[in-house]
Specification:
Structural class of chain B: mainly beta
Mean pLDDT of chain A: 97
Order of helices and strands of chain A: EEEEEEEEEEE
Oligomer: heterodimer
Radius of gyration of chain B: 13 Å
Distance between the termini of chain B: 40 Å
Largest interface: A-B, 24 and 21 residues
Helix content of chain B: under 10%
């Protein structure tokens, strides 16, 4: 199985400041069709996960443009340009290139 | 509006069985893969299994840790997906989410249903 490793596991951030979360996969996530099926999910406290980013860098409908995704191969990053209070929660990367689907262990974003 | 609503969770003894349901609305159910993902208390997300769509003959696939114990089925006439869980273990205690597969991602999630396996 592909192992997804996120860093940091906890990220205290000041409101209005940027935040960055890294996700590294144990194998390349480039599929045979040339696409890279890496997504980012947000889980606010007490809520189900919510899709933010798919195929590495595509924002899902309704996701604020302060969220952006980048990366290639085995190294990926989620960036929040200016953290807002509603961004508090746990962020997960998930890969859909290899079977079975696997998730990162989660990064907890909290406000300083 | 896309909606997924899970039900059927509860308290069950080790070795017991439970059937979860996922009712879908707001989209063409037969066009989509639907997956089950679980989250143990205070832990991360873990893929459980999935039902492919009609075009892919509704093939089901499972994580290694549930094979032989869990069975996924669907009834497109009711826009519903099911997870039959047998031989439950304490480590199966989790919130179980159904989620819609689309463009190789999970774009919509239900609120989840809690399964507690305890004596």
């Amino acid at each position: 199985d592909v192992v997804m490793t996120q860093t940091p596991l906890s990220s205290p951030v000041t409101l209005g400041q940027p935040a960055s979360i890294s996700c590294r996969s144990s194998q390349s996530l480039v599929y045979t069709d040339g696409n890279t099926y890496l997504s980012w999910l947000q889980q606010r406290p007490g809520q189900p996960p919510r899709l933010l980013i798919y195929k590495t860098s595509n924002r899902f409908s309704g996701v604020p443009d302060r969220f952006s995704g980048s990366g290639a191969g085995t190294d990926f990053t989620l960036k929040i340009s200016r953290v807002e209070a509603e961004d508090v929660g746990v962020y997960y990367c998930v890969q859909a290139t290899q079977f079975p689907r696997t998730f990162g262990q989660g990064t907890k974003l909290e406000i300083k | 509006e896309v909606q997924l609503v899970e039900s059927g969770g509860g308290l069950v003894q080790p070795g017991g069985s439970l059937r979860l349901s996922c009712a879908a609305a707001g989209f063409n159910f037969s066009d989509h893969y639907i997956d089950w993902v679980r989250q143990a208390p205070g832990k991360g997300l873990e893929w459980v299994g999935r039902s492919k769509n009609k075009v892919n003959s509704y093939i089901t696939e499972y994580a290694a840790f549930v094979k032989g114990r869990f069975t996924i089925s669907r009834d497109d006439s009711k826009n519903s997906l099911y997870l039959q869980m047998n031989s439950l273990r304490t480590e199966d205690t989790a919130v179980y989410y159904c989620t819609r597969g689309s463009d190789w991602t999970y774009d919509y999630w239900g609120q989840g249903t809690l399964v507690t396996v305890s004596s």
